Amino acid sequence: MRDFWIIFKQAFMSKAKSKTFLITTAVVVAGIFLLANITTIIEAFDSGEEENTAIPVVTDNEALVDRLGQQLTAMGEETEFEVTGDSRDALEDQLKEGEINSFLILQVPGGDSIQAEYVSESSEMFGFPMMLQEALQSLQTEMRAAEMELAPEQAGALFEPVGFEQTAVTASGKTEEEMNQARILVYVLMFLIYFAVIMYSNMIAMEVATEKSSRVMEILISSVSPVKHMFAKVLGIGMLGLTQMLLFGLAGYLAIRSSSSVSDLSESFFSEMGLGDIAAGTIIYAILFFVLGYFLYAVLAALLGSLVSRTEDVTSLVTPLTMIIVVAFIIAAMGLSTPDAAFVTYSSYVPFFAPLVMFLRVGLLDLPWWEPALAIGLMVLTIAVLGWFGARVYKGGVLMYGPSRSLKDLKKALQLGKE
Amino acid sequence: MALELNHVTKKFGEFTAVDNLSLAIGEGTMYGFLGANGAGKTTTFRMILGLLNTTQGRITWKGQPIDYGTSHTIGYLPEERGLYPKMKVEEQLIFLGELRGMKRSDAKAAIRKWLDRFEVPQYLNKKVEELSKGNQQKIQVIAALMHNPELVILDEPFSGLDPVNVEMLKGAVKDVRDQGATIVFSSHRMDHVEELCEQLSIVHKGQQIVEGSLRDVKRSFGRQNVRIRSDHDLTGLQSVPGVRNASYALNGAVFQVTDDETAHELLQEALKAGPVRHFSIEEPSLQDIFIAKVGNEHA
Prior knowledge:
The complex is a heterodimer.
Chain A: H1 2-16, H2 19-36, H3 38-49, E1 55-59, H4 62-74, E2 81-83, H5 88-97, E3 102-107, E4 115-120, H6 127-147, H7 152-158, H8 176-213, H9 216-223, H10 226-258, H11 263-272, H12 277-305, H13 314-335, H14 342-347, H15 354-364, H16 370-397, H17 409-418
Parallel strand pairs in A: 1-2, 1-3
Antiparallel strand pairs in A: 3-4
Helix pairs in contact in A: 1-10, 2-10, 4-6, 8-10, 8-12, 8-13, 8-15, 10-12, 10-16, 12-13, 12-15, 12-16, 13-15, 15-16, 16-17
Chain B: E1 3-12, E2 15-25, E3 30-35, H1 41-48, E4 56-61, E5 74-77, H2 89-99, H3 104-117, H4 133-145, E6 151-155, H5 163-178, E7 182-187, H6 190-196, E8 199-204, E9 207-213, H7 214-221, E10 224-230, E11 243-249, E12 252-257, H8 260-273, E13 276-282, H9 286-294
Parallel strand pairs in B: 3-7, 3-8, 5-6, 6-7
Antiparallel strand pairs in B: 1-2, 1-4, 8-9, 10-12, 10-13, 11-12
Helix pairs in contact in B: 2-3
InterPro entries (chain B): AAA+_ATPase, ABC_transporter-like_ATP-bd, ABC_transporter-like_CS, ABC_transporter_ATP-binding, DrrA1/2-like_C, P-loop_NTPase
Domain ABC transporter (chain B): 3-230
Pfam families (chain B): ABC_tran, DrrA1-3_C
């Protein structure tokens, strides 16, 4: 057992102390803080620009321009307009020169129907033109109503909004609002799991291949059995992954808490992330599925790493493994909007997909307890089988040298492991 | 006998890597294991270490099979040198020492002692990849010896070293032997084996060709070398009956003969051609024996 911990410690410490690990962790933590303060940063940049946004308007009806401004203000958009005598061509030139960002041509040809053209540098600005159109639409409606000499009550009755409420009767039993909250949290955590599983299982394969290619493996396995070595390694790197994830989690929590600009926002952010009652359960599941998913893939990665004799060959052997995780992620990503679709349900029991897909379902739906339990049970079983199988391959694989780039070597390694 | 291999055979599928190998190595002796590349040396070592199972036969160390329970008493220098390139010398040796059952503090002390002995104390905090090949090898030898093993297996310990370092390592290996350790080492360098080993074994393509003490091996070889120096032409002498082999140099020749009679005859013949400046009968070198047994192509 002592040997096990020595290898475990070495696998953990040598990586934890490495520059790569420290820098990556620091960069991500910095990124998290940056992201938490992004609103402050954006506002800082925005405030400078907004001073000069009076939009030039070419019009034959100045009163309409005033009403448009009022209408937009009522809709929550503060916009200034400036009636200009410039021609359209002149304005277009100014636009190209970059002196103005946009301009508006507003005409009321028949006295009752509005013709508007909004010209801007690019059609990127989605929100504003739509608001503009909406504002003009209601102005026109008002004009028409006035023309028909409808009493204000009549006009009001005409445009009274319908009573509309959305209630979803899905398996989840969660309201749409709750779903949206859960969706954000699940998506973030799912992405973390996906990333961490790929990164750390690749790290395992690389580590094993490095030990093999540097031939230090032969000394190691002459003092520790290959099986012990493999599991100590997998556990050591797994612990490293968990440590890093917890660091990120802690950084995220602190960042949101301390972020000055969003002190009032942080409250809403927490509730938006669903960091209430739903969240605790989801996070526990996330950790559980990360650990299980990691073990599942890490054992396979260690097995594959033991087959190659040069680190350059690792990538090509690990690619199929990575593809499986990518497929799992795609299924899960599609399932975000339809977590109760049949293909999501079925694939959530497949051990290789479960870490992402079952996590998605657990996070978004109210499942009976046995569903995640069954998936977890299947995963544990698969890990046990793979561990047993992997250990046998590993035992032979680590002694095998020579060109090995295909899975055919698996048989060879198994053979050698028995010798 | 401390280490015993009893009719050990190892087959990989159809291929027989080691065929019916038997040897017995006494405690505190140094045993030379000779063989060309692919002769089965590394496979034999891996079987001794328990990394591979024998197909047939038994290997025991002090009467017990070797497994991970006894690995603390064993030191191993693999043929393919291997250390973590990115790890510092001290960290690395502490790690390997701990794996061999040493306490951290003992490992530290041993590392300092050995680095001083090999005259490289300045490498304590260097990364292995920064060291020259010869110095990496010293570190590797330290890893094999630092925990005072009772059984030391050295696969080609002196290859790739300059003569000064070879002497330094030889000294270290002898000291370890004198402290009571049993040492098995393989080499292509016959002179090293001749100098260091009381007992030896030559394997070829998995077969054990020669086994025994150095003296017995030489005696039973049944050939001697006759060295003659003369200013006259000696090329005719190889037709003397009993001469197995002749090699000529500028100022003389060496003849391989099976008995003393032939040697005397050679001398007579040489004197007929003219005065002889040097005549000697030498026992065969291990090199001669190896070449005769294994064949020229691998020497």
